Amino acid sequence: MFTTLSDRLAATFKNLRGKGRLSEADIDATAREIRIALLEADVALPVVKKFVAAVKERARGEEVSGALNPAQQIVKIVNDELVTILGGETRRLRYAKTAPTVLMLAGLQGAGKTTLAAKLALWLKDQGSSPMLVAADLQRPNAVNQLQINGERVGVKVFAPEPGNGVGDPVAVARAGVAEARRTLHDVVIVDTAGRLGVDAEMMQQAADIRDAVSPDEILFVVDAMVGQDAVNTAQAFLDGVGYDGVVLTKLDGDARGGAALSIASITGKPVMFASNGEKPTDFDVFHPDRMAGRILD
Ligand code: GDP
């Protein structure tokens, strides 16, 4: 479907072997190809501009080395810059000094939070933790039930609202859930929160109230990688309204090419920590910036 960036650059540089340094015209041609490739990968325009400027700057300063031809050399520069923007090293989860570690999920409805909650719980179980899920999404009629089913599937306890536990009040449910996790000696508690179809002041306030009630160790912003450029506006709105420590990209099994990852990481400065790539509980992994860079380049 797409011409890969590596192929584009190879074509641009067909006649350049043996040159000691790339000319300004060569660099401009490179910049054009990178720009097109990033826009095809659905990277937001301001991010593309900043990125291309950084690559041009580096390309100007480099000698054409013996080992790599000019195209390979530029691909390497682009790869390095992509990895840097995506956070460099893989960002690991930070656990609380005193259990339980509280993880809060935030994001729009349909982003994949409830599915992700169970995936994350299963992953934590595999890491040797004893996680518990808290169903504090009381907005979507079926969300509590869905979390209970997902939790059961991965063998993780779900704290759901019931009379006396704050039915109808997500903040009370979240607080009671964390207290229950502490009492029952679960070392990680994952709080699922409500989203709406679009950014909404009431939703932000509710998420901020839950945050204040449970003091999460990590707030994870969950975003559908398929929504493309819109993801950037949503990511910024959640950063301003709730704040978060890291990003989880979902639906990477679709034909999203990683543009959302790059745009969000660049604009918010927050690392992508996990990635979801399917509907099964095991379709989930720690996010590796170098692998995503490869995906954008190929
Ligand atoms: P929530 O509203 O944020 O809690 O979103 P859900 O967890 O209910 O997910 C919305 C839809 O996306 C559901 O149909 C999920 O099965 C689906 N979904 C979630 N994560 C993924 C993913 O990584 N890949 C695919 N293909 N579908 C996903």
Automatic annotation (TrEMBL):
It catalyses: GTP + H2O = GDP + phosphate + H(+). Its main location: cytoplasm. One of its GO terms (biological process) is SRP-dependent cotranslational protein targeting to membrane. Part of the signal recognition particle protein translocation system, which is composed of SRP and FtsY. Belongs to the GTP-binding SRP family. SRP54 subfamily. Involved in targeting and insertion of nascent membrane proteins into the cytoplasmic membrane. Binds to the hydrophobic signal sequence of the ribosome-nascent chain (RNC) as it emerges from the ribosomes. The SRP-RNC complex is then targeted to the cytoplasmic membrane where it interacts with the SRP receptor FtsY. This is Signal recognition particle protein. It comes from Nocardioides panacis.
